[in-house]
Design brief:
This protein has about 475 residues and is mainly alpha-helical. The protein has 25 helices and 2 strands. It is elongated and about 80 Å long. This is LAQU0S08e01662g1_1.
Length: about 475
């Protein structure tokens, strides 16, 4: 594979594998005489990747070493002076179909390091078709793992394949998972910071989402490949919800989410993560997908979660509402938006779990003085008050019962409380949660029947044959689709 005037195959690894000498060599490779000369930059880039790949097992191998490899490159003067050129060259290398897996791993990791340290790199990635390059790499890998990966292959009754074949396949599969973990993190960063557009989202197909959800494992929270798939699904769902305000498109995450044969492990992990995740961006994504389940079809929402799971959700939301700092009011708004359909559209209406605790916290949040104890009241503080009052006024089982002397066993609710439930506030921001749920299929009337939930038919999307994606040359750009103003 040629990259400018240098071939990766022509770069010989150093004979010295002492870690200290190795890192001196790597830093020296990036000190080109003229940091603005693209030919010299290209030569240094290719040598750095090839040398890092060849010496990986002996001099890098640890997570700390890998991080150092990425940061040494992204903090170099060569990279900062030639950011646009370097990003385009890295993507050109990554788009080569037959590039060795270990080289893809180093290239992908450098891209990820650059993207996490500088948001402008994410913009360059999208500008130079990085979304498509990363997606196509992942798609090809998922198709291979779908056919040969052990995590979704039925156990052999005879015990195993041939020893040689098993060892080779195991090494290949492990390498592909490592590369995929990095690539999924790159897509997650693009989604997290909303750097993609509708054209990017439209290339995501059924098999891609199906594989992510179908191969989820719920018995572990430590597997980084599994965690990367989970986070990518959360971020992808959020993008579907955001773009549904402007475009008619199918939320493919929701499509498989309501099919328990596909989503069972994902939902189990979702509940586990919901109780443990502390990262605010992930908490918001988790809340959005729970909100989607509870609002898109209320008849289905009632039976989606087990009662014990509903209790866990309530426990977590009460805990978070009490623990959120004053400067994180937006996350409190998000939690209150989820709490309303959770209390109204599920079995909780019959069990009235933690009723007094819910009333106490909602009454506290219904006062602007309590929500904004110091400083000027902001829009998010007023939103908190409105959402808390909405829960108290429109969820009947949270309202104080009026004693009926004719039948003391049955609580009766006042007419005033019922009339109050008619009044609702409006949401002005497109990023807010809509009152009736987002138009997942571009149609507010579209919904899934309760029957479709109980049948749980498993879709069988085999990986379709794909044409080789169009590859861009060095620095070449294509016009992006932009919505009409």
């Amino acid at each position: 594979m040629e990259c400018g005037s240098i071939s990766l195959d022509d770069v010989e690894p150093s004979a010295a594998y002492s870690p200290s000498i190795f890192w001196e060599e790597m830093e020296h490779l990036l000190k080109v005489p003229d940091v603005t000369d693209e030919t010299q930059v290209n030569t240094a880039l290719v040598k750095y990747i090839k040398h890092g790949s060849d010496s990986y097992q002996k001099c890098v191998k640890t997570e700390q070493g890998l991080y150092r490899l990425g940061v040494t490159f992204t903090e170099s003067m060569m990279f900062h002076k030639n950011k646009t050129f370097v990003v385009s060259k890295l993507l050109s290398l990554l788009s080569v179909d037959l590039l060795e897996c270990n080289l893809k791993f180093i290239i992908s990791y450098i891209i990820l390091c650059a993207a996490k340290s500088d948001l402008s790199v994410l913009e360059l990635l999208v500008e130079f078709q990085g979304f498509t390059v990363v997606y196509n790499n992942l798609y090809s890998t998922f198709a291979y793992l779908n056919r040969y990966g052990e995590d979704i292959m039925p156990s052999s009754s005879s015990g195993s394949k041939s020893d040689a074949g098993t060892e080779i396949e195991s090494e290949i599969i492990e390498s592909l998972k490592q590369v995929s973990t990095i690539l999924m993190d790159i897509l997650f960063q693009i989604f997290k910071y909303s750097k993609c557009d509708i054209a990017n989202l439209n290339i995501v197909d059924d098999f891609f989402v199906y594989y992510l959800m179908r191969t989820m494992r719920s018995e572990t929270t430590e597997d980084i490949f599994n965690n990367a798939k989970f986070k990518l699904l959360l971020a992808l769902n959020e993008q579907y919800m955001i773009f549904s305000y402007q475009y008619e498109l199918e939320n493919r995450v929701y499509k498989y989410l309501v099919d328990s044969a596909v989503s069972k492990s994902f939902v189990e992990l979702l509940l586990l993560k919901f109780n443990r995740v502390t990262d605010r961006s992930l908490q918001i994504m988790l809340c959005k997908i729970v909100y989607l389940i509870l609002t898109i079809d209320e008849s289905s929402a009632k039976d989606f979660f087990y009662l014990n799971d509903l209790h866990v959700l309530v426990d977590v939301l009460i805990r978070e509402l009490n623990n959120i700092a004053d400067d994180e009011e937006l996350i409190r708004n998000t939690i209150l938006r989820v709490l309303f359909p959770l209390l109204r559209n599920t079995e909780l209406a019959q069990t009235q779990y933690r009723r007094s605790d819910l009333i106490d916290i909602l009454k506290h949040l219904s006062s602007l003085d309590n929500v904004c104890s110091s400083g000027e009241a902001k829009a998010e503080h007023r939103t908190t008050v409105r959402l808390a009052q909405k829960c108290l006024k429109q969820i009947e089982w949270l309202q104080a019962p009026v004693v009926d002397t004719s039948d003391k066993a049955a609580p009766v609710y006042s007419d005033d409380s019922r009339e109050a439930s008619v009044s609702t506030g409006s949401l002005s921001s497109p990023h807010d949660f809509p009152e009736k749920g987002p138009p997942i299929y571009g149609n507010y009337d579209a919904s899934l029947s309760a029957e479709s939930i109980t049948k749980r038919l498993q879709p069988p999307p085999p990986p379709p044959a794909r044409k080789h994606p169009h590859r861009l040359g060095s620095g070449q750009k294509i016009a992006q689709f932009r919505p009409k103003s």
